[in-house]
Design goal:
The chain is an alpha/beta fold. It folds into 2 domains: 4-154 and 347-359, Rossmann fold (3-Layer(aba) Sandwich), CATH 3.40.50.720; 155-340, Dihydrodipicolinate Reductase, domain 2 (2-Layer Sandwich). Helices cover 32% and strands 21% of the residues. Helix 1 packs across helix 13 and helix 7 (155-171) packs parallel to helix 9 (210-221). The structure holds NADPH dihydro-nicotinamide-adenine-dinucleotide phosphate and aspartyl phosphate.
């Protein structure tokens, strides 16, 4: 198959700019359509966007004229990535799905729908089987491929679940979990963007809705596909209790989390935990997806790591760093996790999900 046509909704934003960066010169996808608000539509991308990435804007993308976020503009896309402001994503993504388009979304609007997979591609790509089944069922009935939405998780949740998954697989359920996050300002988006005056020489101990999202989404991502194959069965509150406290800090990219966990079946040794994380290989790596990290998890031994500026780009931002793994005198084990919030926490996850779907001939 030649290059698949990719569209990006919300192309001018924090997540949208990452999509442009990751999809330019991609071996499987070509940037075909870029959409944003009517403030941007009709302008060349380079004139509409306030580019804030540390690499130069890809020249070809800069020449694309931004479209309105309509089905008509995106109808020829094989896959549509959404970095839309959640205030507007709901009806737009629904219309795209109903028109038969494949939508991979960063917005929160459909994450809680039972038949919408909520996927961190290095963690629970098996949940994409819900979409695979729907596509196969339609083909068997002689129908064209149905539209669908796959959601990417909240960015802090993505970093958190990355090491949890292999730990649960090897040592059994985690029953208690606390996380305290220190989140980068790029997570607050670019329109209007987090005010410098509020974050310089400061820390803000509140991010609207974030704690609830981490506490809920973790249970869906670590859940299993229901017996009917059409939905996800979340872990119950009795199976795992999650407590999150979220802070905004003066970091450009990269969310750091201080995490403590208690295992239901007793504490594994620290060495066994490190080995388990080092051995973990995600499906995307095994499928040789072009953006898959060589190591989905990097175990760091230095006392003072991970640090956002030094460690966020491991495996091009698709790898999650875990350091300071040690005994916790209250729960069992504590650690510090660092993940790139707009790569594995957002646009990169979208691209990797699309690569997995391409490997499985869904798109
Ligand atoms: N930043 C992050 O780390 C993460 C963000 N997310 C989620 O991803 C989504 C995008 O976030 P982020 O990139 O930070 O946000 P930004 O505020 O940076 O970007 C929002 C985008 O939405 C577009 N937009 C705004 N209003 C409309 C409208 N009425 N119709 C069409 N397009 C519109 C904007 O276009 P214009 O420039 O023309 O106004 C812009 O492209 C959100 O849902 C967010 O919650 C998820 C995980 C991590
Ligand atoms: N709330 C996250 C980014 C984000 O927008 O997440 P969500 O898509 O879950 O609202 C942050 O501030 O860093």
């Amino acid at each position: 198959m030649g290059l698949r046509k990719a569209g990006v909704l919300g192309a001018t934003g924090s997540v949208g700019q990452r999509f442009i960066q990751l999809l330019s010169n991609h071996p499987q996808f070509e940037l075909a359509v870029l959409g944003a608000s009517s403030r941007s539509a009709g302008k060349k991308y380079k004139d509409a966007v306030d580019w804030k990435q540390t690499s130069l804007m890809p020249a070809a993308a800069g020449e694309i004229v931004v479209s309105e976020c309509t089905v008509e503009a995106f109808k020829d896309c094989d896959v549509v990535f959404s970095g839309l402001d959640a205030d507007y994503a709901g009806p737009i993504e629904k219309a795209f799905k109903e028109a038969g388009l494949a939508v991979i979304s960063n917005a929160k609007n459909y994450r809680r729908e039972k038949d919408v997979p909520l996927v961190v591609p290095t963690v629970n790509s098996e949940h994409l089987a819900i979409i695979e089944k729907r596509v196969k069922d339609a083909a068997a009935a002689g129908q064209k491929r149905p539209g669908f939405i796959v959601c990417i998780s909240n960015c802090s949740t993505a970093g958190l679940v990355a090491p949890l998954r292999p730990l649960v697989d090897k040592f059994g359920p985690i029953e208690l979990l606390t996380t305290t996050t220190m989140q980068a300002i790029s997570g607050a988006g670019f329109s209007p963007g987090f005010p410098g005056i509020d974050i310089l020489d400061n820390l803000v101990p509140y991010i609207s809705g974030e704690e609830e999202k981490i506490e809920w989404e973790t249970k869906k991502i670590l859940g299993e596909i229901a017996d009917d194959g059409n939905s996800v069965k979340n872990l119950s509150d009795d199976e795992i209790r999650v407590s999150a406290q979220c802070n905004r800090v003066a970091v450009s990219d990269g969310h750091t989390e201080c995490v403590s966990v208690k295992f239901k079946n007793g504490a594994p040794s620290i060495d066994a935990i490190k080995q388990c994380l080092r051995d973990y290989q995600c499906e995307a790596t095994l499928l040789n997806c072009p953006s898959a990290p060589k190591h989905a998890i990097h175990v760091l031994e230095e006392q003072n790591r991970p640090q956002p500026r030094l460690d966020r780009d491991r495996d091009n931002g698709y790898g999650v760093s875990v350091g300071r793994i040690r005994e916790d005198p209250v729960l069992d084990v504590k650690m510090v996790i660092l993940s790139h919030n707009t790569i594995i926490g957002a646009a990169g996850s979208g691209v990797l999900i699309a690569e997995i779907l391409a490997a499985k001939n869904v798109i």
